[in-house]
Specification:
The chain is elongated and about 80 Å long. The protein has about 425 residues and is an alpha/beta fold. The protein has 15 helices and 14 strands. About 40% of the residues lie in helices and about 20% in strands. It has a 6-stranded parallel β-sheet, with helices on both faces. It has a 5-stranded antiparallel β-sheet with strand order 10-9-8-7-11, sandwiched between helices.
Length: about 425
C-alpha cells in the first residue's frame, strides 16, 4: 500500500500537513507537485504528472489523498483510466465542485465535466473531509451533499478547520487511516471434495468492519450472511474465526488473497483460469477414457457472470445430424464432467460481476466482459503452448450458442483448422 497526495492551490509538497502526514503513516507517501506551477496548475499537466507518479500497475495498491484542487486533479486523472481499474481509496480534503468565487486560472477546473460515475465505479472507498467554515465553500451542507450524491462519499465534518491549512491535521490522519483500513481486505475460499471433485464451497471476505460469509454447492451463487463489527481489529478476528470454522468443518483452503477478489488483475486471473481449466479438461478425459475427445471450449454468458466448460467427442460428431454445428458450437458438445474444478475462477468472476453491477455503468460492464474473455483465451493459449491439446483439436472461448468465438479461433488453432472454421462461418 502507498499514499499519493496532491496539494491545494498554491501549495508545495513541504506546505501544510503533507510532511507531517508522511511521517505519521507507516506506508510510503509521495506528494505530487502541482504542474506546471503551484499557482496555475492545469488539468492536462496534472493528469500527466499523476500518470507518471501512479502507473497503471500500481493503482490497485494506491490510496489517493487530495487537498482542495488536488481532489479535482485526482478525479480528472482517474477518469482517464480504463474502466477495469481498481483503486482502494480516495480521501478528499476540503474537496469541492463549486467555489464561492473564482479567478481566471481556476475556471477550467470549475468548468471541466468530470465523469464522477466512472470514478465512483473504480474506487472502493471514498471519503470527503470538510469543515463548517471553509472560506471557499461557505455552504458546507450543499458541498457535502454534492459529494454524497455524485460519489457516494462517506463524510467527515470537522468544526472550525477552515481550509485545512495547519501543519498538523489530526482529522486528515484519521480519515486516511480509516481509508487504509477500509480498503484492506482479507479473502479466503474453501472447498470440500467428494471423490476428488469440489462439491461445496465456503467463501469468507473481510472489508473494513464487515465480514461476509457465502456458502453452497460448487458453481452456484450460494447463500450469504454479513456480520458487522465495532472496528477493524474485531473484524479481523471474526474473519479468522470464520476461516477456522471452515477448516474444522472439513473444508480445505483453495485460495487466499490480501485484497478484494474484484481487484484481482488480468494476469492473476488468467493464471487461475489456466490451472482450473487444466484440471477440468483432465477430469473430462479421465471420466471418458473410451472416447476420442477433440473439441474443447470455455464459455460464458453475455454478462460474463459465469464460466463453464464443454468438450466434444469424435463419436458424437460422427453420429450428429448437424455435424457442422456439432463441430464448431460448444453448446452442442456432449461432455462436461469436471466443471466443478472451475470453482475458484468462478468465485472471482462473480466478485467482478457484482462490482460491475454496483457500478451500473456500461463502460464497466463492457470492460468486465472483455477482461473475462481475454483471461480465458489467454489461459487456453497457455494450455495449447504446453501441448495439452492435440494439434488438430478445435479450441475456443465462446460467449453463447450463437457466438462461435470469433476472437479466440485464430489465437488458439492451427491455420488449417482456422481455414475450415472460416469456411463454415461464411455460410452464416
Amino acid at each position: 500500500m502507498r499514499i499519493v497526495i496532491v496539494p491545494r492551490w498554491g501549495a508545495s509538497p513541504s506546505d501544510d500537513w503533507y510532511p507531517w502526514l508522511a511521517e505519521a503513516l507507516p506506508v510510503p507517501v509521495e506528494v505530487v507537485p502541482l504542474k506546471p506551477e503551484a499557482d496555475a496548475p492545469t488539468i492536462d499537466a496534472m493528469v500527466t504528472a499523476l500518470t507518471e507518479a501512479a502507473p497503471a500497475e500500481t493503482l490497485s495498491e494506491t490510496v489517493f489523498v487530495g487537498h482542495s484542487v488536488g481532489c479535482q486533479a485526482i478525479m480528472s486523472f482517474l477518469a482517464t483510466q480504463p474502466a477495469t481499474t481498481r483503486v482502494p481509496a480516495f480521501v478528499a480534503v476540503a474537496g469541492w465542485f463549486e467555489l464561492d468565487s473564482s479567478w481566471p486560472p481556476i475556471r477550467p477546473w470549475l468548468e471541466a465535466e468530470l465523469d464522477t460515475h466512472r470514478v465512483r465505479a473504480m474506487v472502493q472507498h471514498i471519503q470527503v473531509v470538510l469543515s463548517d467554515d471553509d472560506p471557499y465553500t461557505k455552504d458546507h451542507v450543499a458541498n457535502q451533499a454534492a459529494w454524497e450524491d455524485r460519489l457516494d462519499a462517506k463524510k467527515m465534518r470537522v468544526p472550525g478547520a477552515g481550509h485545512f491549512n495547519r501543519h498538523e491535521e489530526v482529522s486528515v490522519l484519521a480519515a486516511v487511516r480509516q481509508a487504509i483500513d477500509a480498503s484492506v481486505t482479507a479473502y479466503a475460499l474453501f472447498e470440500k471434495r467428494q471423490n476428488g471433485v469440489p462439491k461445496d464451497f465456503v467463501e469468507i471476505e473481510r472489508c473494513g468492519n464487515n465480514v461476509v460469509r457465502r456458502w453452497g454447492r460448487a458453481l452456484t451463487w450460494g447463500e450469504e450472511h454479513e456480520s458487522f463489527y465495532e472496528d477493524t481489529a474485531e473484524a479481523f478476528r471474526g474473519f479468522r474465526h470464520a476461516c477456522d470454522s471452515a477448516l474444522d468443518d472439513g473444508y480445505d483452503e483453495r485460495l487466499r488473497l490480501d485484497h478484494a477478489p474484484h481487484r484481482m488483475g488480468p494476469a492473476a486471473f488468467r493464471s487461475l483460469v489456466h490451472k482450473a481449466a487444466r484440471q477440468t479438461f483432465a477430469a473430462t478425459r479421465s471420466a471418458r477414457p473410451s472416447l476420442h475427445l477433440n473439441r474443447y471450449a470455455l464459455f460464458s454468458d453475455s454478462s460474463a457472470m459465469t464460466i463453464v466448460h464443454s468438450v466434444g467427442s469424435a463419436e458424437a460428431l460422427a453420429a450428429s445430424e448437424y455435424p457442422d454445428d456439432t463441430r464448431w458450437l460448444c453448446a452442442e458438445y456432449d461432455q462436461d464432467d469436471g466443471g466443478e474444478f472451475l470453482l475458484a475462477p468462478y468465485r472471482v468472476l462473480l466478485a467482478h460481476y457484482r462490482y460491475a453491477s454496483a457500478a451500473d455503468h456500461p463502460d464497466v460492464f463492457e470492460a468486465h466482459a472483455r477482461w473475462v474473455a481475454d483471461a480465458c483465451i489467454g489461459a487456453l493459449e497457455d494450455l495449447r503452448g504446453e501441448g495439452f491439446f492435440a494439434p488438430d483439436d478445435f479450441v475456443s472461448f465462446q460467449v453463447s450458442s450463437d457466438d462461435a468465438g470469433d476472437d479466440s479461433i485464430a489465437r488458439l488453432n492451427t491455420p488449417s483448422v482456422v481455414a475450415e472454421w472460416k469456411a463454415w462461418r461464411a455460410t452464416w
